[in-house]
TrEMBL record:
Keywords: Hydrolase. It comes from Pararhizobium polonicum. One of its GO terms (molecular function) is hydrolase activity. Coiled coil: none annotated. This is N-formylglutamate amidohydrolase. Pfam families: FGase. Transmembrane segments: none annotated.
Amino acid sequence: MPETASFEIIEGNPAAGLVLLADHATNRLPPEYDRLGLPESAFARHIAYDIGVEPLVRRLAKRLGVPAVLSCFSRLLIDPNRGEDDPTLIMKISDGAIIPGNHPITPQEWESRLNRFHRPYHRAVSQTIAAVGTASGKAPLIISVHSYTPAWKGVPRPWHAAILWDNDPRAVHPLIEALEAPGDILVGDNEPYDGALRGDTMFRHCMETGLAHALIEVRQDLIGDDSGVAEWDERLGPIFAGLNARPELHEIKRYPSRTGPYAF
């Protein structure tokens, strides 16, 4: 895989009808960006990527035998989980860190990053979803995996995992129920933040198209090492398989978005 590739597709059985996504899988930057003027330590922080997500999604894809699409560039370069018109698409400041390579930025560089990274990633997501739909003969179920910090601005986040969503409850409600069933973790329902974000990956590939979906966030301290990743692979694998076995999650049903009417 070239160093500047914008995405990686993990091959799996498309007939299974499930696609995993990892929008913020890596902290990579092409060499010509010279770390965007930031110290190397910035790329070990959550501002650069979702800690623990890449190994977790790789394990889950292998366990379940399903395709996954991972981004291969840092969110500091351009955020694939934002719409093209979102003002936070290319951040000038992230959690107190000024990003010199992003400000000032020319319109030409903005467009270049869209063309080199953001758009190819989303084409890969669209193509993978389409291939799974064709092979399975049904609407795919989409699960996006993210991670979040244990605290924000000094305030602890007690949730071990969180499910973020807009207005389609089909996969969300059974996922929350399954996570809560053992009684050993606290699950956030649209906490620590709301999942309705116009133009983001779930909006673009699922809300607009009527595909059942869920976005799960796992707290980063719980998947920050191999043992944590293995534990959450064991926890999530059977739950995702159970969701994928539900026929109602493989039907097209378009729900109105809480962000406002669709453009078409």
